[in-house]
């Protein structure tokens, strides 16, 4: 019935402990309603919800912008270094429970500096939690600073200036927020500067935006990975190019469903991506808002698309090969997958 598995339960058990990396996770999107209330109280911030149930009920989105409006409002409860530490620590405990061995975390500094929170407060809180997770769980990490694409390139440039003292802890830069109307070309110069600083480069492209935005991410920003990339499938030449380049796509199934990028999980393109030899990975994006952490994402697509053991192993392997770990660390992680398969 399920290729490589005796039953659906057997597959769920396999997914639960499968060693994996998460490469597309906005730390602000892991803010659970319970912590939102706790921090609102701690920092004396008013929130327009009476209880956790009201917050969850507000998480019904018909597109990316619907979500972003509530996401930027939610992050308003984060004020102190301890808040960012607590947020990141809570995510890492969930990641550990999902057999995540390596994480590459996005953060949105402009969502905080715009509100008067110091850049240092954000980076120091997040990175202290990342250091703790290495000691506590052995989870390794990279940190990726995203520019908000609805803001100007000059503002992104100023944010890169603010990051300069912290480049020892920041591994890459990304591009997120409202995609349509804000093509990668708008940020060509600031990404060139980031490359000159030896930062890794990623960009959200082809989530709601057209294939042309994916081409721009490749040709103008010179990305090392594409975040989402779903709409690449509309352009066979682009698919062939991404496959030939071994370009990793960080795909987010529950996000795609909640933001109506797909109408139904059964219509999710993940299996088509794998058949086209695209280096797809599975990730949670904003797990608190989209209804599940990384294993829930694997499980949802596995059920809807009846993924085989071989496909699940490919996804987990892709998560390490597409990571920014060095070759020795990648080899070590891939060996843990081989050992897992042979149990
Ligand atoms: O899925 C996303 N897309 C664009 N911007 C975002 N910021 C947080 N999540 C997202
Ligand atoms: Zn994202």
TrEMBL record:
The record marks 228 as: Important for catalytic activity. The active site is at 207 (proton donor). Its EC number is 3.5.4.2. The keyword Zinc applies. Residues 19-339 form the Adenosine deaminase domain. The lineage of its organism: Bacteria, Pseudomonadati, Pseudomonadota, Alphaproteobacteria, Sphingomonadales. Catalyzes the hydrolytic deamination of adenine to hypoxanthine. Plays an important role in the purine salvage pathway and in nitrogen catabolism. Belongs to the metallo-dependent hydrolases superfamily. Adenosine and AMP deaminases family. Adenine deaminase type 2 subfamily. It comes from Sphingopyxis bauzanensis. Binds 1 zinc ion per subunit. This is Adenine deaminase. Its cofactor is Zn(2+). PANTHER family: ADENINE DEAMINASE. Substrate binds at residue 286. GO terms for biological process: adenine catabolic process; hypoxanthine salvage; nucleotide metabolic process. GO terms for cellular component: cytosol. NCBIfam families: aden_deam, PRK09358.1-6. CDD domains: ADA. InterPro entries: A_deaminase_dom (IPR001365), ADE (IPR028892), Ado/ade_deaminase (IPR006330), Metal_Hydrolase (IPR032466). One of its GO terms (molecular function) is adenine deaminase activity. Keywords: Hydrolase, Metal-binding, Nucleotide metabolism, Zinc. It catalyses: adenine + H2O + H(+) = hypoxanthine + NH4(+).
């Amino acid at each position: 019935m399920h290729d490589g598995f005796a039953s659906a339960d057997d597959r769920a058990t396999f997914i639960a402990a499968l060693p994996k990396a998460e490469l597309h996770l906005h730390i602000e999107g892991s803010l659970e309603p319970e912590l939102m209330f706790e921090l609102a109280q701690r920092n004396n911030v008013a929130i327009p919800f009476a209880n956790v149930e009201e917050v969850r009920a507000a998480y019904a989105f018909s597109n990316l912008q619907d979500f972003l409006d509530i996401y930027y409002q939610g992050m308003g409860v984060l004020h102190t270094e301890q808040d960012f530490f607590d947020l990141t620590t809570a995510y890492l405990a969930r990641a550990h429970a999902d057999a995540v061995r390596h994480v590459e975390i996005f953060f949105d500094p402009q969502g905080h500096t715009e509100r008067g929170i110091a850049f240092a407060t954000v980076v120091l809180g997040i990175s202290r939690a990342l250091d703790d997770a290495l000691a506590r769980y052995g989870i390794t990490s990279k940190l990726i600073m995203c520019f908000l694409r609805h803001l100007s390139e000059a503002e992104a440039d100023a944010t890169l200036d603010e990051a300069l003292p912290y480049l020892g802890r920041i591994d890459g830069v990304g591009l997120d927020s409202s995609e349509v109307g804000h093509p990668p070309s708008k940020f060509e110069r600031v990404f060139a500067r980031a490359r000159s600083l030896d930062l890794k480069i990623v960009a959200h492209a082809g989530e709601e935006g057209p294939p042309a935005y994916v081409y721009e991410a490749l040709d103008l920003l010179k990305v090392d990975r594409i975040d989402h990339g779903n709409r690449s499938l509309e352009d066979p030449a682009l698919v062939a190019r991404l496959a030939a380049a071994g370009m990793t796509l960080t795909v987010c199934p529950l996000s795609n469903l909640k933001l109506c990028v797909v109408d139904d999980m059964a219509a999710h393109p993940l299996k088509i991506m794998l058949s086209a030899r695209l280096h797809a990975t599975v990730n949670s994006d904003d797990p608190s808002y989209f209804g599940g952490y990384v294993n829930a994402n694997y499980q949802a697509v596995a059920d809807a698309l009846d993924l085989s053991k071989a496909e699940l192993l490919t996804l987990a392997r892709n998560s390490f090969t597409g990571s920014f770990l060095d070759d020795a660390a990648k080899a070590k992680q891939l060996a843990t997958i081989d050992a897992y398969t042979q149990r």
